[in-house]
Amino acid sequence: MIRGALLVLLAFLTSTVSAHPHSFIRLKTEVIGDNGTFVALKMRWTMDELTSADLLYDAGDAQPGSEIWKKLAAEVMANVLGQHYFTEMLHNGQRVKFKNRPTEYSMERVEHQAVLTFVLPLAEPQPLSGQRYTFSTFDPSYYVDMSYEEDNDATLSSALREQCKIAVNTPTPSEESLSFAQSLDKEDAPPEDMELGKQFAQTVTVSCQ
């Protein structure tokens, strides 16, 4: 039985690595503002070649924007929605809610990788002046590593650059967490309340004047 909600979606059947994580998604996120408020996150998830294989096989030679790509994007997005976008946002210690549906989404092939792009809207516009927000994107099981390769993979829209600053913080997990993750094979899953993936998740901080 393949573990991890994202894996059920993408059918990651080919990995033979013995320790978590087994698959990798490179994140890029743009924080979107409008009329002095924080309104959305524009996300781009680039899946590693092994993870992409099944999706690209199903897409075949379909052209970008074709019905096949639209169907694949809808299937992937439905499962991402089922996990609250794999994203947690906090403001003053309280969770910020997202809308139940993205305002737009699409999937495409970039060389040998599948790329999912979508706009994750906040349920309500949030104030920016003097405020601080943090958000993280992660698979709780840590079967999938979801991370930013470069600090500038998290950016601000042009409307926010004068007022806000953004930073990516990469945690240093404990030796205990590292050893536990390395001990898990493909069939294992950590206890749900452990939130192993959260211990490895990068945190993006948006601080505004």
UniProtKB/TrEMBL annotation:
Listed Polar residues bias regions: 170-182
Q: Where is the signal peptide?
A: 1-19
Query: Carries keyword Cell membrane?
Result: no
Q: Which UniProt keywords apply?
A: Signal
The record's region (Disordered) falls at 170-192
Q: Which domain of life is it from?
A: Bacteria
Q: What is this protein called?
A: DUF1007 family protein
Q: Which species expresses this protein natively?
A: Citrobacter amalonaticus
